[in-house]
Amino acid sequence: MVHLPILFDLLGVFSAAASGALTAVRKGLDLVGILVLGAATGLGGGAVRDVLIGARPPAFLADWRYLSAATIASLAVIAAQYQVFAVGPELRERVRVTTAYLVVDSLTLGFFAVSGTGKALRYGLAPVPAALMGVLTAVGGGVIRDMLIAEVPTVLRREFYAIPAAIGSLIVVGADRYTPALTPIAFVAAGATAALRLIAVRRHWHAQLPPAKR
Question: How many CB atoms lie within 10 A of CB 125?
Fold first, then answer.
């Protein structure tokens, strides 16, 4: 039985909701739009995971901390962006928003890959399906976010996105097989996932195939 602290799930909700709220800010959505997009991004992947593994009701309906974390994250983004936009030139504002989005999106991959895999293992899934649930948790909220703003989901584009989540999930699965003390490894897996995503963006790594020959 894997025992992962709820902290990982809540941190994932917080960072995912922040990335959704930042996307809403970039798209010029109003207050309601920012809150809705933040909540959908923060809670969507975990909700789909819970339905698939038979965890009913989904965690965000059973524990008030989930929706609270998503709401606080969105409000924090609103407050922070108000200050940034009030004092900086336009280029500086855009750079700050882009950098903040990248960081929180990478942290989301790490936190959710760990918590999603851990919860799936707790519910008796085999290692490979559990790792898939970790990836689904990590990218699911982002897919919902991108669909709501009528964009091709990031995970389906050229960005090196799902692969870091899969690596983090596999680290958790491997650690669970050999040691019961999984929590320290979970922090390593989350950090490695986020770092790999950030490095991939920095070095322009992607999984895009070359053009097909005609």
Answer: 19
